[in-house]
């Protein structure tokens, strides 16, 4: 397993990914290869740990947006009904240097191609990382390091039937947990058939999971959990 904490040299290799540290002449070298893209840094530290964990999937190929748009099979939801479903979401991997006094982002990488889209009108909408998933009633099997599982609770708090085929999230609120699978839990509250509120909950899908270090924490960006108001439609 690639995720975890490392104090000195380590190596993980699969068909698509190589992540390792190696001591050369007393200096520690971090090296990563992912789908042909390479990255290398010399590390000078006496106490730091290297932490590798899944992070918010909005950083590649460069930082464009904080928003994640999940598109899925259309669902018609009765007024007053709450339904929990499972979606697959994209995974990106963050590598951190953690010492007693500070934490630093060393590297972010991921498998596959990242796609972006516009949610809302051109003048006032938002750019979002786009990902399409089927809808599952049970936790699906996912491809490690490429996909995770999102548990999404959808509540139709309106007085009308609502058709839903997408959910937009602010990834600043995203809480990711992992062990042999990467997970996050989220909520969607339908206010009207064309408007909804979304946010993430800080809860593991299973009790034995580890919480990821968030990129916003490592980058020392103040975060206020705020959720997102979808005001330009639910499909």
What does this molecule look like?
This protein has 235 residues and is an all-beta fold. Helices cover 2% and strands 54% of the residues. It has one domain. The chain has one helix at residues 215-218; strands at 4-6, 10-13, 17-24, 27-34, 37-43, 49-55, 67-77, 82-90, 92-98, 103-109, 115-119, 126-133, 147-156, 162-170, 177-178, 182-192, 195-201, 210-211, 228-230. Strands 8, 13, 15, 16, 17, 18 and 19 form a seven-stranded mixed β-sheet that branches. Strands 1-6-9-10 form a four-stranded antiparallel β-sheet, with no helix packed on it. Strands 2-3-4-5 form a four-stranded antiparallel β-sheet, with no helix packed on it. It starts with a strand and ends in a 5-residue tail after the last strand. The model has no long low-confidence stretch (mean pLDDT 93).
- What's the overall average pLDDT, rounded? 93
By DSSP (H or I, 4+ residues per run), the number of helices equals 1
Low-confidence stretches: none
Total domain modules: 1
Name the helix and strand elements from N-terminus to C-terminus, one letter apiece: EEEEEEEEEEEEEEEEEEHE
Q: What is the percentage of strand-forming residues?
A: over 45%
Main sheet attributes: strand count, strand direction, barrel closure: 7 strands, mixed
Work out the helicity level: under 10%
Distance between the termini: 37 Å
Strand element count = 19
Global shape: elongated
> Radius of gyration over alpha carbons?
19 Å
Helix-strand makeup class: mainly beta
């Amino acid at each position: 397993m690639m995720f975890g904490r490392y104090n000195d040299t380590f190596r993980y290799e699969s068909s698509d990914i190589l992540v390792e540290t190696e001591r050369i002449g007393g200096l520690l070298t971090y090296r990563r290869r992912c789908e042909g893209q390479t990255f290398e840094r010399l590390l000078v530290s006496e106490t730091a740990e290297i932490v590798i964990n899944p992070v918010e999937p909005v950083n590649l190929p460069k930082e464009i947006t904080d928003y994640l748009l999940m598109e899925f099979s259309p669902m018609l939801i009765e007024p007053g009904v709450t339904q929990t479903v499972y979606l697959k979401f994209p995974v990106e991997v963050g590598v951190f240097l953690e010492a007693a006094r500070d934490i630093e982002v060393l590297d972010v990488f991921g498998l596959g191609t990242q796609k972006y889209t516009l949610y809302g009108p051109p003048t006032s909408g938002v750019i979002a990382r786009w990902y399409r998933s089927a809808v599952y009633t049970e936790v699906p099997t996912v491809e490690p390091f490429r996909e995770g599982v999102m548990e999404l609770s959808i509540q139709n708090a309106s007085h009308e039937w609502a058709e839903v085929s997408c959910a937009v999230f602010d990834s600043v609120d995203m809480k990711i947990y992992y062990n042999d699978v990467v997970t996050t839990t989220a909520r969607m509250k339908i206010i009207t058939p064309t408007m909804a509120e979304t946010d993430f909950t800080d809860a593991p899908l299973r009790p034995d999971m580890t919480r990821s270090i968030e990129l916003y924490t490592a980058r020392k960006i103040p975060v206020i959990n705020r959720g997102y108001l979808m005001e330009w439609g639910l499909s």
